[in-house]
MarR family transcriptional regulator
Amino acid sequence: MNEPSRWLTPAEQNAWRSFIRAQERLGGRVSRHLQSDSHLSVADYAVLVHLADAPGGRMRSADLAASVGWEKSRMSHQVSRMVKRRLVVREWCPEDGRGAFGVITPEGRAMIEAAAPSHVETVRRLFIDSLTPEELEVLTRVANRVLEHLEQRPMQGGSSGSSSPRPPR
Amino acid sequence: MNEPSRWLTPAEQNAWRSFIRAQERLGGRVSRHLQSDSHLSVADYAVLVHLADAPGGRMRSADLAASVGWEKSRMSHQVSRMVKRRLVVREWCPEDGRGAFGVITPEGRAMIEAAAPSHVETVRRLFIDSLTPEELEVLTRVANRVLEHLEQRPMQGGSSGSSSPRPPR
């Protein structure tokens, strides 16, 4: 990691900034709509959707974290907050020692069923409708490529950058 | 807005989930590297880069917000926090009445110059290197399309979704 920094070309920089900015603005808008329409965060919604779709409305915490795409500790904090709001309960399965289940409550199910139509409409109006089916397909492929690439490079401490200070672009 | 909800197709849903998840995971990783290597948030970095690149290291707050792609109020809070850390100062220009300038300090410039090489290396390693130049180009185009689409649809209150409750997907 001690080779000189490879600065980004203008095209690379545009790709990075556009990608981050599009997701940030889109995520912000979708999140504000969801909160004002349904009093749910995007994180609440993701958890409720996955549980509502699971057999019996229940999933092992580790499986739920993997499905939503979060680290286990983040999911644990999120589920704790949702337990306080009675959207989810935790159930322990002492005999197998493989951790708790999250189970959607009737209140949780009512929330997600009420929230889904307008959330889907928001996602369609702000995101899906802006792109052709071909563009959606390319975007899915590219996003999945990024995800696979990240999985092959687990985080190990900080990155040790090179030391040549140059004006950043 | 009272037509029945148009539920997402599996392809549309994959595009949405992959896009959100890729940005979320990538953003999280890049942010942790930047924090641990350079003690800067992604927001700090964005502000410092834009100011460092501007003539005299100064930009009007509204122009800085537009360049970074944030709302003015968010930029104002961010700049206030950075003023406390002496990375930026505010300068008022009383005669023109068009608001304050943000100006990068020597400390801010030293921070960004020290942070840039390893941040660029992280972005390249985790993002740019996962994609071909053609894919980067498509991604830029698609992300810009999403941004234009959002700008044409300013937020007005909540979205009024339809009311047919169906199991969410």
